[in-house]
Amino acid sequence: MTTVFADTFYFLTLLDSREDRHQQAVEVSRNPQLRILTTE
Q1: Do strands 34-37 and 2-5 pair parallel, antiparallel, or not at all (unpaired)?
Q2: Cα 17 vs. chain centroid, distance in angstroms?
Q3: How many of the other CB atoms lie within 10 Å of CB of 13?
Q4: How far is CA 6 from CA 3, 38, 40, in A?
Q5: Which residues lie closer than 8 Å to 34 by C-beta, 6 or more apart?
Q6: pLDDT truncated to tens, each residue of the chain (40 aa)?
């Protein structure tokens, strides 16, 4: 399993289908091999 860091940009892009990188964010969120790390 690979751990990746997700910042605010990732979550905003995931929620907004008009964003250029929306599809890429969706693909990352559906990848069971990735563990998403965030901070407060």
Answers
A1: parallel
A2: 13
A3: 20
A4: 10, 6, 11
A5: 1, 2, 3, 4, 28
A6: 999 999 999 999 999 999 999 999 999 999 999 999 999 8
Model pLDDT, residue 8:
94
Tell me how many domains the chain contains: 1
DSSP 36: E
For residue 19, the enclosing domain spans 2-37
In which element (H, E) is residue 28 found? helix 22-29
Residue 12 · residue 38 · CB < 8 Å: no
Please count the residues of the chain. 40
pTM exceeds 0.85: no
